[in-house]
Amino acid sequence: MRKENFFFYYILISLSILYIAFKNNDSIINRILILGIIVFFGMAIWDHFYEIKELIQVKSKIRKVNFENILLILGTTFAASITWHINHTLGYGHIIANGIVGIFVGLLFSKQKAGAFYIASFVGMSGEKIVSSMFMAGLIGLFAGFVIIFSKEVYDGIGGKGGTIAALSTQIVRLLMGLFI
């Protein structure tokens, strides 16, 4: 997938999530807040568009499957599953579960891999109504790993990318599961 396409899909998916949140909310205060978020998102996209445009190379590179990417995908799968297990099965809560996984991946892996695994552990912090099982957390973590690989250069160094990837991965997998189950 070309970087330009990923940026475009990121904008479309983010706007669709905000639209669904706006449409399904009956409270006028919540709708005003969501409209404010949409305006802020639009201003941020407009502000960063030209900066990101310079970072995105027009040439499309074919990404080779390598062991680093396989390790990253497996690690994100396990990080999300383990966080969910510590959170729900062992009952330690979402913050402690995320902290435990964060400490272990920070000590055992490089900065880049630890960051990716920590992002995936955000998935395991979700409530049981959102992510209903450890298998589902692992599936979402797997999807998050792919999103992390394809979005390495997009918004590099900008805050909020990890939470956005976790939320985006969760919503897309839940949508796909809803279509087939």
What does this entry look like structurally?
It contains seven helices and no strands. With 181 residues, the protein is mainly alpha-helical. It has two domains: 3-55; 67-180, no CATH class. Helix 3 (67-89) runs parallel beside helix 5 (111-124) and helix 6 packs across helix 7 (161-180).
Keywords:
mainly alpha
What fraction of the residues are assigned to beta strands by DSSP?
under 5%
Give the overall form.
Answer: globular
Residue-averaged pLDDT, rounded? 81
Q: Which structural category fits the helices and strands?
A: mainly alpha
Task: Give the distance, in angstroms, between the N- and C-terminal Cα atoms.
Answer: 28 Å
Q: How many strands appear in the DSSP assignment?
A: 0
Number of helices in the DSSP assignment: 7
The whole-angstrom Rg is: 17 Å
Total number of distinct structural domains: 2
For the report, how would you describe the main beta sheet? none
Low-confidence sequence ranges: none
Q: Helices and strands, in N-to-C order?
A: HHHHHHH
* Helical content band: over 70%
- Oligomeric category: single chain
Keywords: Membrane, Transmembrane, Transmembrane helix
Transmembrane segments: 7-22, 28-46, 67-86, 92-109, 130-150
